[in-house]
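dumping this here so i dont lose it
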């Protein structure tokens, strides 16, 4: 989609986006003066973005936690738990617990309160990695990382609701590091545009790839290689911010997309969707969804009612350039205290 709204609403969306940009600017000026900003006594690394929807934050947070652990640190993840009925069961929180063994995930709308409560209760993490934290400015951070999706150039976007920007790109000036996602290689022109706004080029460039597939059916869970998808007809249900990258990966692998169900980011499965999946299942070889979708689906979908398996790709992040520089940035938060 070009914008979050239908094109016929552009007449209203453009002035609304101008007003929204003004409100965001006033809010940022408030926090720039240090008002209502709270320190929590331990290093905080914030990972966020400028746009609505998926830019690759979850794989990057996973990578960051693994690197910190490699150096002997014990990070905990802090997140809001957007759209979750039960905060501890928020899809991304469950996903992190599956990806990262024994990770503590602190979930709550008031992240200052939840972090302070965690510390007061004897929480042992020596640092916090805040998921989707760039616009959440009430917690002081030692390192602010912005993820920019190379495939959805934010420099060509408008503010919500006429575009996908959460805040003007000038906000990059307060970031400590920019990481470019979905990039196969360094692009000097893009790097220069980032530097023109933020004052420095991206610290790292990353790409994502599927390393394998999890097949779930009524008999259990099985690991399959990527070529399992080649030539097969699939339905997709993707409750993520930007499903385009998943669709492109399926096409590259030779899968035939027979049905694509529209779903919002973090959207739970409705009874109507479950019924639709049941109806579709005899007509396709598999239903494809992300891990974020699967952690919600597995509790509400009876696999015995489906006549095909559910396929969940295993997503891995690869830093194609700047891994050491990014790692040095991460470790610097412990030196400044």
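and the seq i came up w/
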């Amino acid at each position: 989609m070009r914008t979050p709204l239908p094109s016929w609403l552009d007449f209203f969306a453009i002035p609304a986006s101008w007003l929204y940009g003004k409100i965001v600017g006033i809010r940022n000026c408030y926090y720039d003066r240090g008002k209502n900003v709270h320190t929590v006594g331990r290093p905080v690394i914030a990972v966020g973005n400028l746009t609505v929807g998926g830019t690759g934050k979850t794989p990057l947070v996973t990578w960051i936690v693994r690197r910190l652990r490699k150096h002997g640190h014990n990070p905990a993840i802090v997140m809001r738990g957007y759209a979750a009925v039960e905060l501890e069961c928020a899809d991304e929180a469950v996903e992190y617990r599956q990806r990262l063994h024994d990770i503590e995930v602190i979930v709550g709308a008031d992240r200052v309160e939840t972090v302070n409560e965690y510390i007061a209760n004897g929480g042992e993490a020596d640092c916090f990695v805040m998921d989707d934290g760039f616009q959440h400015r009430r917690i002081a951070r030692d390192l602010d990382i912005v993820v920019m999706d190379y495939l959805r150039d934010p420099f060509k976007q408008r503010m919500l609701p006429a575009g996908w920007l959460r805040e003007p790109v000038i906000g990059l000036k307060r970031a400590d590091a920019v990481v470019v996602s979905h990039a196969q290689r360094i692009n000097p022109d893009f790097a220069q545009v980032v530097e023109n706004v933020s004052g420095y080029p991206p610290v790292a460039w990353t790409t994502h790839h599927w390393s394998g597939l999890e097949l779930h059916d009524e008999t259990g869970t099985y690991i399959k290689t990527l070529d399992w998808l080649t030539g097969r007809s699939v339905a997709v249900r993707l409750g993520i911010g930007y499903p385009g990258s998943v669709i492109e990966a399926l096409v590259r692998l030779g899968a035939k997309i027979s049905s694509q169900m529209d779903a919002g980011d973090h959207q739970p499965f409705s009874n109507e969707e479950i019924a639709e999946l049941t109806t579709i299942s005899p007509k396709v070889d598999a239903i494809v969804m992300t891990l974020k979708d699967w952690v919600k689906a597995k509790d509400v979908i009876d696999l015995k009612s489906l006549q095909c398996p559910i396929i969940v790709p295993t997503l891995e992040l690869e830093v194609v350039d700047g891994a050491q520089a990014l790692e040095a940035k991460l470790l610097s938060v412990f030196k400044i205290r």
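The first strand starts at residue 44 and ends at 49.
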